[in-house]
Amino acid sequence: MAVAGASGYAGGELLRLLLAHPEVEIGAVTAGGNAGAPLAAHQPHLVPLADRVLADTAAEQLAGHDVVFLALPHGHSAALAAELGPDVLVIDCGADFRLTDPDSWQRYYGGEHAGSWPYGLPELPLVGGTRQRDELRGARRIAVPGCYPTAASLALAPALAAGLVEPDVVVVAVSGTTGAGRSPKPHLLGSEVMGSASAYGVGGTHRHTPEIAQNLAVSAGTAVRVSFTPVLAPMPRGILATCSAPLAAEVDTTAVRKVYADAYDAEPFLHLLPEGGWPTTGATLGSNALHLQVTVDADAGRLVAVAAEDNLAKGTAGAAVQCMNIALDLPETTGLSTVGVAP
Amino acid sequence: MAVAGASGYAGGELLRLLLAHPEVEIGAVTAGGNAGAPLAAHQPHLVPLADRVLADTAAEQLAGHDVVFLALPHGHSAALAAELGPDVLVIDCGADFRLTDPDSWQRYYGGEHAGSWPYGLPELPLVGGTRQRDELRGARRIAVPGCYPTAASLALAPALAAGLVEPDVVVVAVSGTTGAGRSPKPHLLGSEVMGSASAYGVGGTHRHTPEIAQNLAVSAGTAVRVSFTPVLAPMPRGILATCSAPLAAEVDTTAVRKVYADAYDAEPFLHLLPEGGWPTTGATLGSNALHLQVTVDADAGRLVAVAAEDNLAKGTAGAAVQCMNIALDLPETTGLSTVGVAP
Amino acid sequence: MAVAGASGYAGGELLRLLLAHPEVEIGAVTAGGNAGAPLAAHQPHLVPLADRVLADTAAEQLAGHDVVFLALPHGHSAALAAELGPDVLVIDCGADFRLTDPDSWQRYYGGEHAGSWPYGLPELPLVGGTRQRDELRGARRIAVPGCYPTAASLALAPALAAGLVEPDVVVVAVSGTTGAGRSPKPHLLGSEVMGSASAYGVGGTHRHTPEIAQNLAVSAGTAVRVSFTPVLAPMPRGILATCSAPLAAEVDTTAVRKVYADAYDAEPFLHLLPEGGWPTTGATLGSNALHLQVTVDADAGRLVAVAAEDNLAKGTAGAAVQCMNIALDLPETTGLSTVGVAP
Amino acid sequence: MAVAGASGYAGGELLRLLLAHPEVEIGAVTAGGNAGAPLAAHQPHLVPLADRVLADTAAEQLAGHDVVFLALPHGHSAALAAELGPDVLVIDCGADFRLTDPDSWQRYYGGEHAGSWPYGLPELPLVGGTRQRDELRGARRIAVPGCYPTAASLALAPALAAGLVEPDVVVVAVSGTTGAGRSPKPHLLGSEVMGSASAYGVGGTHRHTPEIAQNLAVSAGTAVRVSFTPVLAPMPRGILATCSAPLAAEVDTTAVRKVYADAYDAEPFLHLLPEGGWPTTGATLGSNALHLQVTVDADAGRLVAVAAEDNLAKGTAGAAVQCMNIALDLPETTGLSTVGVAP
């Protein structure tokens, strides 16, 4: 098992989770600009790997592993994956292979569309009652979802699949700063983010917008309009997605909760809270659980669902490990926990 | 000038602002359970008042002042105000006199409706082109708005007043913890809130929901449906309200920005950011400014407006001082600043 | 295995760690005032225990377990332990049995001294070259150290044991807020602690002062003067202890580092950082590792050691599990990790 | 009045304070790499300056102002000041002119020593009973102290001046992240600093060490050994300095407090807290006040003093404005406040 991009946040989280995975041996850990440095300089929390040195992210370093995780900037995965052979399980935490529509890729990311891989959101309900999980069994290329799309899609999919709401959704999602990665930009300095919240990518310009729409269309069986606003909050990890849509049916909270319970009660990582409880991101930190609650606002005529997750875990690296388990026919929960590190 | 409720956050902020006000002399500072304690035990940042002792919140302590600010728990203002005489300017930072509809009061707060006072949101555009400010001139009773309604109402009012959007809005507002007051509750402990975001009052159950609807109806000239979700974020101060509504007209961002500029450019405390800039709560901290931006999301068919404010300043105590200035015919900006303490 | 005090922070962390322990089955989970409530209302992060209800903290609830962890307010452990039988392994996370000197107990805690139990700091070097660990093998009563004493004692003990420094130490330790527990006090509100640091218990009045002195005396073989100042920092978890003492020998940093390496390199949870690296609490969060660095300041004539730990993990609950492993003759690292959850 | 370095944190704070100063008109605002950008892109909180554009930091831009504040990286002040003429009041917030000893400069900063200017710590007690203030009256060149030296020096000077303690001090000071400036470095990212504390510059290697020693020597009348450890805490602003020294006299807390009260009660910005109260940085934010408390730890044989300040205000920009007032013979408190923005 190798991790490319091991000096970043997603790479570090992959290694953290893989260190606890009983079926995995950690091989190459590679980086781009940080190649040659001790891993400990960038990931001091990974004590058992304190003597590792970051190799260069190149096919020759990654070759010879059964599983290769890519945690690279956008646009770097395709070329590397092409060199890794079809039998290697390549799991891409980047965006390169998430979108199926070349026009969406072109519009939101620019450059040539690399194609699409099986999409790593196992729990997503599909039209017809199956799950996205089925596409991942035995797969050797998997595109891990974006952190926001995981929360927003799982929060809204059951309602759309059941026809409870109009395909016209509003998502406002608060995120911790690790979602923006580790490259040092002035607006991500601690001095700037502590004590302050800010919106960005407003008006549908965030790259996760088409990915949310793509997922919801798959669940709804029809195109879904998505108004998405991400908000940066002063915390390192965590996404809290507040999602709503106009009611399309006469339902109350009890009925809606039953739909969600039917959809998710068998899912080991999706945790519908008891009625009256609302998710906090803190309870999910470090875990692969997504916490969820849903209600009906009769006055506003809307269903409101709120999902919390750890953006680096269930939102990225945990999902990647979960997908690996499925692809390799291991028990899906192997090496993953629903227990958060709180408070 | 007297402040009742001086040991709480709103009371402390009132005193902070009044210490900088050139036309004000600070008389009685009172509290409920904290009466008898040194003010410094609760407000150590108010160095010039370090030798003050908290008196009891009772009419005899407040009598004899031209202006009395009330920063009390809900339900305590009516009886106190009744004892203060009609010539005293009483400015209530609580909710008791905000709602005009007794049924709304009954539903959201319970108990008897105390009535309504002139509503202290000076900049709110009214049908016909006037402002809420006019009602405040010479008033001797003023109800200061809730912190969320200030942000949400000012963010959406110009669009509704101009008929740009349908009267069916979604507001998701992130708030710092001081909005929940100073009474020690387990979920407000630093250990709980740091590193975590959580939604609460979801589904229209938060008490500020009818207040937002009331304000927007006044601007729109018609009833407005409001879906409101507050989110608690790990910061002491600040509200960032992400507000959207379906477009009712063919407009682009430029046109919408012009409507907002026309509405607010003459307002000293409302700061429409340059195109492309989005508000951060950090830039407003300690100031009486509300920062605002608006855009059109053509794909989603929605107008999105984001407002940032300091919930204790423009959201409460700053608004109270601004209203005092208007009521007393002082220049509206006296003693107030648009300069935030950042970072 | 039972946990008494399961609604608090130490109790929650015990359960988090025990859920990952392969040799443990979680039996009774009890509380005082919160008895009868769902565990999930207080520990929403412990998803696998979401259906548990808090029993009452009473001997009959705790009876029948091989191991009982006590995470109670001071003064409650003695009576409870007396009812549990000598063959039950009772591990007390409270202070009741830490101090050996009744006068120290009386002075710092008041009330009658309950006695002392084997002290659960396995790595502490004792005069003669043994470790505190030896006293824990087969023990059936163990007193888990305070969070500050763990960091301060391990940071300074090798230098004192080797005679490198005078027995006259200064410790200034920054702590997250969970160290103060979960009872809601105004000064622990998020609004108060975020964005602010404060000293407390200054001048040797903090209860951990005599415990640090007791530990260091055991390592030094002589009485040690301790100046200890705790500082509350705006973070939920983590202790960073900056410890120094006057040099008693002509040594340089290399020599001092060798003494520490000799003392700790075989210890699985003590991580002496590479030269030039300094600990961050973030790298230890959720783990049982203590990160350490030491240097010589020749100008000031002092040795300076800095230790970082997670106050709830290695500082409390992790130490408790580590002690359980030793007492039960399990491999000491069973169920414990050195991998932090960062960032 | 001009500010060079107006896109950084110190520059922004200078402008914030100067906007509130009744005797000042803000002229040129300049920057290095950010020249040409709107000031609002870097200082969105300075609403009244929202239409300003950053000029280039060059003598021709700064010429023609009576007062020029320099908030530049180390090493840039000397050349610029040389071009500004002897009648211009130049106040340097950088380190270039703080140290009087060329060897110390060489050792801690490297490069050629530019010399020293009158040192801008007005309240510092000098041997003989005078204050550092006297040197600043009418001065036209002033070196503003470093943020740590302000807190540590004022915390210890009265005890040293009165001979209460040995000239052998230990300072451990917790700081917010703005002290590290605005240049984006990975370890200053919000993701890294939130939830974590870390020591740096341990062992006397921090550049403020010789500056503290220089100040204390001036108060003590003898050389003072300084062990200084800075700690980075997860907050934007604030320094909390815990300072101690061995007692040299038989004194108790009451006697020590009297010495401090005598030293500081007449100082408008130094606030000795009532006995039993300890400083929090939160209470000082945005203000020019330094809060202070002192006690005797008889067991440890040490005096312990704790000081809190806002590192950007009293620690940098507020001190600069205070010095300007003195130099220009304005009332020293003009435009400055002791009221913090809390919580």
TrEMBL record, chains A, B, C, D:
Cell compartments where the protein resides: Cytoplasm
Pathway(s) of this molecule: Amino-acid biosynthesis; L-arginine biosynthesis; N(2)-acetyl-L-ornithine from L-glutamate: step 3/4
Main location: cytoplasm
All copies of domain Semialdehyde dehydrogenase NAD-binding, residue ranges: 2-139
Keyword NADP: yes
One Pfam family recorded for the sequence: Semialdhyde_dhC_1
Physiological role: Catalyzes the NADPH-dependent reduction of N-acetyl-5-glutamyl phosphate to yield N-acetyl-L-glutamate 5-semialdehyde.
Entry's family note: Belongs to the NAGSA dehydrogenase family. Type 1 subfamily.
Protein name: N-acetyl-gamma-glutamyl-phosphate reductase
